Amino acid sequence: MEAVLRQQIGKIVSLSDDEFQFVLSHFLVGNYKKHQYIIQQENPVPYVHFVVKGLLKSFYIDKSGKKHILQFAMKDWWITDNQGFYNKQNATLNIDCLEDAQTFYITLENREKLCAELQKMEFFFLQKMTAGNIALQNRILSLMSKNSEERYMQFIQLYPDLIHRIPKTLIASYLGISRETLSRLSH
Amino acid sequence: MEAVLRQQIGKIVSLSDDEFQFVLSHFLVGNYKKHQYIIQQENPVPYVHFVVKGLLKSFYIDKSGKKHILQFAMKDWWITDNQGFYNKQNATLNIDCLEDAQTFYITLENREKLCAELQKMEFFFLQKMTAGNIALQNRILSLMSKNSEERYMQFIQLYPDLIHRIPKTLIASYLGISRETLSRLSH
DNA sequence: GCATTAACGTGATATAGGTCACAAATTATT
DNA sequence: AATAATTTGTGACCTATATCACGTTAATGC
């Protein structure tokens, strides 16, 4: 399972065996069951998680009690409540498991120490964060310029593997539409 | 005007005079007139800009010809087409000036050289990118969970200074609503 | 200072998508 | 295997927001 993390980093910077062991020593391993929460609204956000296997979702509950999915995270994805984690605030999001999952997780302190000690890791995280920004900007433009059907088609195209692992209800919530509307689209 | 950039960086990492001069040497200065484009769809995106004064907007034109504002950028803000800039692709966005503007701009090569030479600048850019991510995630949740009026109120609260400098039509476009709907909200 | 263009407000009408309600089908749990 | 819980489909109806079409006012450029 270390290989998953190593490969992910290796796509951006090259690490010797020793360097990777050093990187790894900053992380912990966690195993979670379906339905288990790893981050909860109103609570501190001590870690960012790198998913090794399984599937998680982060979601926001608005003032009328409605859930909105911000992100799904499967193997190779990073997930946390960014606002809580980076600003050391309590979570406004919840994160739980859609499937049994395993993650490598790291504290902000350890991440910063790691970056200070091994500059290429800072480069790695910057690249990841940049890619995240691009994806988020595209999602905003998609929400603003596409209708429900176009957004659903785009989701299928972007994440073909997720379609079969996630209930339509949750995909609808991710796309910002009601489950009924999504149901009527899919033929 | 150098002071604007220095202060922006100084909020995150401390720089000696020499270090700041070194940082500065990687940037160029640009002056632009109202209505002038600094980035155009289908063209390369050689720079990311740090705004010293004036006001710019980035926008996407969808397939039906409708404009959607992705970002406004005033003093102290960074702006570019991220996808084009970081992935060395042609722009999918346009960026032009709402007011005469001045920016410090830098190429990706220079930015990477700067980060390699002065590690705290990499930390700086990572912090900025992280803050950007948080803002984008909040915007997505806002688009998904709030109605037009709530989004407009939130905009006023977040950017009180912009309200008087930007036509309502453009604010509507940023919020993802029609100008008529916004007009009917504002009493 | 005048002419052009952009911005704004507002009525009338259309529509995408939301909400509610119920039943069927599928998946989990013991 | 039986029971409970979740997911999905679909009809009927509702509503927020879009669109179209004006006229008015305010900026802007020459």
Automatic annotation (TrEMBL), chains A, B:
Domain Cyclic nucleotide-binding stretches: 31-116
Pfam families: cNMP_binding
Keywords, comma-separated and alphabetical: Kinase, Transferase
MF GO annotations: kinase activity
UniProt-listed InterPro entries: cNMP-bd_dom, cNMP-bd_dom_sf, RmlC-like_jellyroll
Transmembrane segments: none
Protein name (Swiss-Prot/TrEMBL): cAMP-binding domain of CRP or a regulatory subunit of cAMP-dependent protein kinases
Species of provenance: Flavobacterium omnivorum
